Amino acid sequence: MSLPHLMLIAGIPSAGKTYYGDWLAAKQGFLHIDDVTANHLRLFGLHQAWEEALLLRDAHPFIVELQKQGHPAVLNWAFPLDCLPFVGLMKHAGVTLWWFDADIEAARREHIRNGKEAAAFDSQISDITAHRVQIDTLFRPNVLQVLTPHGEHMAPEAIFEAMSRSA
Question: Does residue 141 have a cis bond before it (omega within 30 degrees)?
């Protein structure tokens, strides 16, 4: 089984995106960019290409530089939802998109258990709800329910298998 070489995972806060990205890096040799911010992208020499891509509204400059890293890559992006058009450009440029869905209350409990603010979670969920049609249009059929109402996370091996089947 194999996955696409370039993926973006997004989704409900505290659904397990970072954990899965770390697993892909450790077990499958992926480059995991957990946070698409200036400082994190600088670590990989990708900041300038990212800024250029955003400025030009063209994901290709970033994708070209990302491919030069020589590894399959997964971006974990908790993007502001006004950036959904850019996510569409990334998809058009060949990045496979995945949405990690979760039971909202279970994700909220996980968020708080991890020491994060409930108000920030609630704000993000409100934003996601307001943009749900756009999210569904971009990410479907690549939507995985990764956190149950009982707080059980889908195992990374099961996520990998589900993603591989659809690749």
Answer: yes
Q: Rounded to whole angstroms, what are the CA distances from 151 to 99, 105, 142, 147? A: 18, 9, 21, 6
CA proximity to 107, closest of 79, 75, 140, 148: 148
CA 161 to chain centre: 17
pTM: 0.91
What share of the chain has pLDDT > 90, as a percent? 66
User: How many Å apart are CA 114 and CA 141, to the nearest integer?
Assistant: 30
Q: Which two structure tokens, joined as six digits, stand for 167?
A: 């690749």
CA distances from 109 to 34, 43, 50, 58, 114 (A): 22, 32, 33, 37, 9
**Rounded Cα–Cα distance for residues 100 and 143 (Å):** 6
**CA-based nearest residue to 44, from 9, 19, 18, 68:** 68
